[in-house]
Amino acid sequence: MEMRKRDTPLRLGGMALRNGVLVHGPTSFGVAIRRDDGSIATANGHVPRLPVSVSTPFLRGPVRIAESFALRPVGKRALPAVQFSFGRPEVVVAVAAGTLAAAAVRRSPLAAGLREAVAAFASLAPAVLSLRGGELTAYHGAEHVSIGTYESGERASKEHERCGSHLVGPLILTSALAGALANRAPAATRGAARLIGAVGALGASVELFGWMNRNPDRFASRALARPGYELQNRLSTAEPSPEQLEVADAALAACLEAETAAA
Prior knowledge:
Layout: E1 13-16, E2 20-24, E3 28-34, E4 40-46, H1 60-78, H2 89-106, H3 112-129, H4 136-152, H5 168-182, H6 190-214, H7 219-236, H8 242-262
Antiparallel strand pairs: 1-2, 2-3, 3-4
C-alpha cells in the first residue's frame, strides 16, 4: 500500500506481534495479523487511558508505559488471534535469569557505578529476547517502515528514531545512577530505595528520550541513541517481506480509520 504524506501526520507508535503489527495513535489503535490461510484480519478500537491525565515530568513516562501495557489486552479482545511477544516460555525464563543475574552482579566486588550499569543491562535482557524469534523481527521492521513512510511520504528504513529500543541507553545510565544512590541508603531501607530509584530511573529515561527526539543532532543525544540503534540494526529488526509490509500497512490503515472516526 502506498502511503501519501499528510499535511500534519499524526504521531504514531506501534508494536510488533508474532503474527502481525499493532499501530496506535493519540486516541485509537489498529491491529492486523496474517491468518494461517494467508488472508489478513484487522480490527481497531480506542487506546486505554488513565482517568486522570498526568503531565508532570518524571511521572508521565511511567504512566504512558503503563498505558501501553494496558493496550495489549484491549488489542487481544479486539482480535483474539493476535500473538504478543511476551509470554513465551523462553521470555519468562529470561526474566528469571535476568533478575538472578542482576542480583548476583550487585553482590559482586565491581565498582558501584559499573556494578549498577551491568545489573541494569542484565535486567533489560528479557526485553531484548522478546523481540527475537520467528517472524517477529521482520514484523518489527515492517512496523517501522510503515509508520516512517506515513510520516515522511518516502520509503522509510527498518530503524525508527522513536522506537522504544532507544530507551536502552538512557535507562542504563539512569538505572546505574539510581542504583548507586540507593546503595548509600541504610540497609533497612535499601530495598525501598531501589524500588523508588527504579521508578525514578524509568521516568528520567523517558524524559531523556523526549529530549533526544527534540535535539537529534546533539552529541549527547546521538551517544545515548547509539545503543538503541545498534539493537534495532543488529538484533530486533529485519527487512520485511512485501507480505509482512502489507500487514503493517493494514494495521496503519485501521488505526487511521479509527482516528478519523474519532475526530
